[in-house]
Amino acid sequence: MRMxxxxxxxxxxxTMAAGGVAVEVPVGAAGVFPVTDxxxxxxxxxxxxxxxxxxxxxxxxxxxxxxxxxxxxxxAGSLQVKAGVALSGANQAPASIEPLTGTxxxxxxxxxxxxxxxxxxxxxxxxxxxxxxxxxxDQKPRDIHPYPWTCHLAAFDNTVExxxxxxxxxxxxxxxxxxxxxxxxxxxxxVLRRGLVVDATTDxxxxxxxxxxxxxxxxxxxxxEWEPVFNYMVEHLEAFVFGRTDWEYVTNTFVFPTNxxxxxxxxKAGACNGQFSGIGADAAQTCVQVDEIQYMGLLITNxxxxxxxxxxxxxLVVSPTCTGQVRLVNCAFWGPASYNALLQGxxxxxxxxxxxxxxxxxxxxADHPLLVAESGKVQVTGCSFGDGGTALRLGPGVEHAIxxxxxxxxxxxxxxxxxxxxxxxxxxxxx
Length: 431
Fold this sequence. Notes:
This protein is mainly beta. It contains three helices and 35 strands.
């Protein structure tokens, strides 16, 4: 007999969406363990850490679902989500700004200690957290304090989905312990210092439909304020950070606002290679910063990047430390920014079918080029430059450049200091 979220034959079935497919959690059936059976209370006052952990421990014996009904559940400590266990709330999709309803976890542990255990230590193989909202009631928009990760993932095949983070300081951390095939999908919210950090992944992680935005903590009903939260994120947030990860696939992600939208770094475990499609960053100081990448490289397609905050807003920075390959295709860059792109690494950088525009007032007066290549090997093909003034500067440190078939507003003005190291042809002439 199929159960669809109603009381049927004395068994309550809670239906949740996972990856677009309905997943039934029949409360009362074998393998489903309601936290209320272990003494948990949704009164917003009782610390439910021990009750939740007892339910998780019981479910871990053979694998199963720990069911958290709608309500406000205070958790003052850390929960170890063990192998084969799904900690499941009632939210079938990420929540809106308000009302604060559904399955809500009120987290208070680890204040002022980023190194404390995460709220959810998702470190057993095939463990899951889904269908809930997390709110830190002691965090205040004009008095922001550090907290540890809301979710920490390690091991194999772990999942976070349909989760809303109202005001997490550190959102989701993957690694630095070894992990494989993480799945992070349909996660939204306001994150303050780090949104998602991925490291030590040796086989194909997936990140899908993740959005960070200050408005999740803007509602007065939950003590939020737009302006101080916006300003804090601009000064402090690194929204998506990727260290070592092999074949990472990232689709449909976004952040507003941020200090750095997407940052690629090298850790003790190594650097990233991956495919990123349909990604965006707005109100950024730096939208994409590539400090290092694996030699085979980074592929970004269909991105939209807008930088206009801070002293020197830039959409794309390839740092002097970068030696791997960076390719961007069909991406749009606009400001008002100081520069659209600064290429400073010893790497291969390819930009094709992209749109560049949007100088701020200072850049307009100084005629900053929209795109600056100072070193490495560069290809700029089939792009459009939407502003008048200098489109591209090739510095004397460029090893080789191919600049072919571009057009722009009033033509494509190119400053070529690389001389014969640059192949420059078939670009729209300057009027």
